[in-house]
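User: I'm putting together a teaching handout on how multi-component assemblies are represented. Below are the sequence lines for each component of a complex, exactly as they appear in our records. Could you produce the 3D structure of the whole assembly as structure tokens, so the students can see both representations side by side? Please keep the chain order the same as the input.
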Amino acid sequence: MTLSEPGSMIHAADLRKSFGGFEAVRGIDVDVRPGEAFGFLGPNGAGKSSTMRMVAAVSPVSGGTLRILGMDPATDGPAIRARIGVCPQEDTLDTELTVWENLFVYGRYFGLPKAEVREKVEELLEFVQLTDKAKAMVDDLSGGMKRRLTIARSLVNSPELLLLDEPTTGLDPQARHVVWDRLFRLKQQGVTLVLTTHYMDEAEQLTDRLVVMDKGLIVAEGSPLALIAEHSTREVAELRFPVAAEGGTHEPLAESVADLAERVEVLPDRLLLYTHDGEETMAKVHERGLEPIATLVRRSTLEDVFLRLTGRTLVD
Amino acid sequence: MAVTIAEVGRSTARSLSAGEATGLLLYRNFLAYRRAWYIFATGFLEPLLYLFSIGVGVGALVGDFTFNGQSVPYAEFVAPGMLAASAMNGSVLDSTFNFFFKLKYNKLFDQMLATPLTTLDIARGELSWSLLRGGIYSAGFLLVMLAMGLVSSWWAVLVVPAALLIGAAFGAVCMALTTWMRSWQDFELVTLATLPMFLFSATFFPVSAYPGVVRWVVEATPLYRGVVLCRELTTGAVTWASAVSVVYLVAMVVVGLLLCRRRLDTLLLT
Ligand SMILES: Nc1ncnc2c1ncn2[C@@H]1O[C@H](COP(=O)(O)OP(=O)(O)O)[C@@H](O)[C@H]1O
Ligand SMILES: [Mg+2]
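Assistant: Of course. Below is the structure of the complete assembly, with chains in the same order as your input.
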């Protein structure tokens, strides 16, 4: 048995989740500290939502240990849920109620007195910029507004721990930035955030520490910067080529430049050259007479870390 | 403004008692239905229309009737049947279509389960809602019966709790069965079960009209138990046999509710 770190918001040891014969989470160890913004980064099907649902105390654990705020979800489900906020992957707003009623009724489910919930609802509508939509029905809101309403709803009980499952998936860039901004403010207020995402930029922007998940396992853990430093080079030179013909690859091209970089990744439409100095590498590539249709020099991202660790891209 | 940090002087979130949880679910449904009160009204009108057309209209041709050894005008015979049927209808609507919508489309229960509420709170709360609806229907119907002079005993006061019991029995069992429904088409089965019960459970004519085995089958249906119970109360013919109906219906409530809760666990807490 593993002992929980003192004050750990979430403590998971060898945590598992199976659906019938299929194991979606295959033994993960996680400790989330108070005040931290913690991320689960991984592609679709990695087991992020399965993990989040167990942490939210709505999905029974199939194996291992899980403690949330020091309590066991198997026995203290309602007590845990009273103290956490949950923003599920799919919005579960009440389509038969207005925006205001959604927040009010939800707040009452937490046993809070009417007057306090009323006050809180006004504050939260302000916070997610939906005050002028208070009387609207949920179905009349845009996707971004619904997401913001879901976030507001998850805050109605003043949670110590906020779980956000893919908070911005499906939103347009502008709506995403509004949500990021709100989450950033929460983080500054000291709320412990746990979020899942398959967007590396979201993970980089919002989290202090993250785990990279793939096929039900954690393949790496650290701060975004540390992960990049550990698993990738400083820069990447991207060479774009026409998509390789059926059956063929860009492997031969890769071999011709292999010595110019620490590592070369071959994708169907491009080569990624991992190097300390992207411009210099690019210059040498041109000297060799290669003619990519486009080139790009950039810094390494978590996407590169994921590619390195799994051989696959995050978003396909 | 600190949106999340619990502020001084504010209450902290907590789990709810069964009573509080039920009250909140009723409140939520009240808010949702406020905008659709006319749906509420149609459920009340239906049995009333039957009472007027068949009880009064056909009753004029039929004349009096012997029930439990006493002579009863036809309308007085039919009215308690309609009352029981309205309790069934009101509750079946809520526990099938509306329950299905909340379960599968509105994701209402997923939402509730993210809070301190439990599956038992949900099953209990939803059942109470159908009960409340059925109770309002039957109380209104009883007033109409009273106004039309179709009540001949003080026992009739108990017909409202009896109607609630009928509503609870059908509500609990239908909620449990609805958890197995896959699409709206499956609800044809509900009509297939309730319509024959409505027509043949000694609602419009006495069970003695049936030959041996058929009579046994009819007497075993839940609506029949409800109809005779109501009729015994409004005509004042209460006997120990009435207790059989009560036990039958209470058993339906308990079994239905527990089954429903178990199914919600398997469906939602995956
Ligand atoms: N209720 C369920 N029943 C069966 N399989 C499931 C269920 N939920 C998730 N899965 C499977 O578990 C795997 C992980 O899913 P999920 O946790 O949703 O991943 P992610 O959120 O990272 O996309 C997927 O292969 C998915 O199909
Ligand atoms: Mg997911």
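A couple of points students might notice: The interface with chain A takes residues 1-7, 10-16, 20, 24, 27-28, 31-32, 35, 105-108, 110-118, 268-270 of chain B (CB under 8 Å). Residues 81 and 203 of chain B are 5 Å apart (CA to CA).
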